[in-house]
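Re: Re: token formats

Sure, here are both.
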Amino acid sequence: MDERKERTATPGFLDRIASHRSPARVRLNARMRKVMSLYLPTANDTLLNREIDWLLDTISHELLADEGLRGTTGPNRGGRALIVIGEAGAGKSRALKRMFETRPEFEGFGEPGCPVLSVVAPSPFTLSALGNEIAQKLGYFSRRNLRQSEVWPLIRGLMQEWGVRILHIDEAQHGDQISNSHVAQEIESTMSG
């Protein structure tokens, strides 16, 4: 939760909201909490699980090759992307969050030491803004935003230090604001670098 949201969601404010709810609103809110806590899997969840299995298997293969435990000719270095697309409100973020919270490979999701780091892409989207968001999630705080050329090498080091192998960028459609093909190539190079 960012600082602005924390300021508006103070306990006093929440207490005032709760104290002014009618009994009908209290009942409705209780029902809505139950409904919102349900998760109904779909065929998309099966596909998402299969793609996450593939992603984890490729990471495992690379790590084993790095340790000399497989007789490979060399690891296939570089990033891999799993892009989940769909209409707004289709449940993409919720499905991924559920996968990260329920699959044993991602135990401790949201905590230090988990191999998954989840961030929300900033808007407006720039590589520098995204990099600074990721660096903060990895515990690096600075009084100034780091330039793109400074922040990405820092991120790579911090991800390695924290054992982060998967970077989940939610709301990545903010990157659609960048339509220049040169900039798109720069994003690809930066992410796989």
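Second one below.
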Amino acid sequence: MNDDDQQLERDEPEEDRRPRRRRRDEDEDLRAAPKRSSTGMIIGIVLGVGFAMQLVIGGLIALLLPAVKKLQETAARSKNMNNMKTIGLAQHSVHDTVNGMMGPNAVDGRTGEVYTNHSWRTGMLPYMEQDSLYRGIDMKQPWDAARNAQFTSVVVPQFRDISDANQATTATPYRVFVGGGAVFNPDGKPVSLKSISDGTSNTILVVQAFDTVPWAKPQELNYSPTAPLPKLGSPGNSSGFMVLVADGSVRFVGNKVSDATLRKLIEKADGQTIGVEEW
């Protein structure tokens, strides 16, 4: 710039020079604007992708939950069936040891003595690797006597419903029917498998009841051919319930089974047998 131009710029009025500064400021703002716009766009894309992923994950979880629940029910059913098989083996062991006798109350597997103040489950203990627990119980005193409390409050895994969230419970769903033609007598007198004239493969020995009781308590399911059947099954499995058949096998019975079919299976000598397909 020559001296004449510099002189013209100095002579130029202040108000004429000011717009040129504003134009420079505007140019800087225009150059900065795309940067701010790009940053906002990136943030928007990231948020959108995150939201989409949440929707996808939420949808997958919703689809998987029923499958997970079914797997849990199947696993619990399998373990409970194993428990019932163990109980069945113990019952047959007592039956064979005391000359073909077992009952709804505790039967001493060595002497055949019946203890009406104790449940049949207590009598099974020596045959379920729980002999030390059995020996600690004073069978001459009631199951809930102070002397027996430290023993009858012990959790016996084979008597517990696997689907029960309470790991420390003494409650059991495994109960038997008494009276009305069922296998067991309400007076507690032992019976023999020979009395099951309908056949051991057609008669229920133990059932998975919805209402549980302490395993040592001698409280079973009163049965009458004319009274409503008790609720069966488990809160952890709504599709059916398990039964231990008198021949020692365990079966899962769906909720669609009729009362008439169940009554035929409960009564040991009604002269009515059913096929496997009817269960």
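The CA atoms of residues 244 and 250 lie 5 Å apart. Strands lie at 105-107, 114-119, 171-175, 177-178, 204-214, 221-222, 240-245, 250-254.
- S.
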